[in-house]
Amino acid sequence: MSEPITVWLTPPGPNPWKVIVILEELGIPYVIESFRFEDVKKPPFININPNGRVPAIVDPNTNLTLWESGAIIQYLEEVYDKGKKLTYDSISEKHLLNQWLHFQMSGQGPYYGQCGWFKVLHPEKLPSAIERYTNEVHRVLGVLNTALEGKTWLVGDKCTFADLAFLPWNARLDSVLLTPPGEDPLAPYPNVQAWTQRMLSRESWKRAMEIRAQLMDQQGLTWNGMPKGINNMKEYEEYMEKQGQEKKSEA
């Protein structure tokens, strides 16, 4: 029996949940080291990942510490997915899976993240930045919608790690684009919408989101990462300004 892999994460962001859903799918034992986002640049985590970004893993079975979610996923597949549940053996399919994983890492993740930053979190509203990254989100969705035409999964005839890597960001697209309540931001992309729904219904994802909800609650955070009692962006900006002033006064 393998010893549990330790996963270091801050619960609000999407990237750690790419790794957790893969661990759940493959039935790999793991434990979570959950900590606050404001501590990503501090010890002990900075000693695990000098880049100060989550997730990172420590695998006692191979004595390996690894960061970058895409690299972690590829590692888990190579070392632990002996039954090829989420991957394939053939050279063409293996490289197509890596192609989509790279697209998720270089396309979806950064563009969604920048869109969320400038549209939601950045204190100064910059219309040119908001427009650029909103357009890039829709471009990525268009690529996926085209690729999924007439298909159930990105590669082959089963759900793979490449599909699941896209799920955490697409699952929170409404908060990235600030979609009005009751509207589905994936509705203009029916192939992506159906694909995402197929993955949302998987037990691995449901378990991952139950864990996330528990960890968020422990940190006093709501589902979207805002502290409990904060109801909108104006209140959140005032809260962050107050926190900044308190830190200055402490210094």
Largest sheet: 4 strands, mixed
Count of strand segments: 4
Report the top-level CATH class of the largest domain. Mainly Alpha
What percentage of residues falls in helices of 4 or more residues? 55-70%
Describe the model.
The protein has helices at residues 15-26, 45-48, 69-80, 91-121, 127-147, 161-170, 173-177, 190-200, 203-218, 233-250, and strands at 5-9, 30-34, 56-59, 64-67. The protein is α+β, with helices and mostly antiparallel strands and 251 residues long. It folds into three domains: 5-85, Glutaredoxin (3-Layer(aba) Sandwich), CATH 3.40.30; 91-205, Glutathione S-transferase Yfyf (Class Pi), Chain A, domain 2; 220-250, no CATH class. A four-stranded mixed beta sheet has the order 2-1-3-4, with helices on one face. Helix 1 links the parallel strand 1 and strand 2.
What are the main properties of this structure?
GST_C; single chain; EC 2.5.1.18; alpha+beta; 56% helix; 4-stranded mixed beta sheet; globular; 251 residues; Glutathione S-transferase Yfyf (Class Pi), Chain A, domain 2; 4 strands; 10 helices; Glutathione-S-Trfase_C-like; Glutathione-S-Trfase_C_sf; Glutaredoxin
Topology of this structure?
Elements: E1 5-9, H1 15-26, E2 30-34, H2 45-48, E3 56-59, E4 64-67, H3 69-80, H4 91-121, H5 127-147, H6 161-170, H7 173-177, H8 190-200, H9 203-218, H10 233-250
Parallel strand pairs: 1-2
Antiparallel strand pairs: 1-3, 3-4
Helix pairs in contact: 1-3, 1-6, 1-9, 4-5, 4-6
Domain GST C-terminal: 90-219
Enzyme class: transferase
Protein name: glutathione transferase
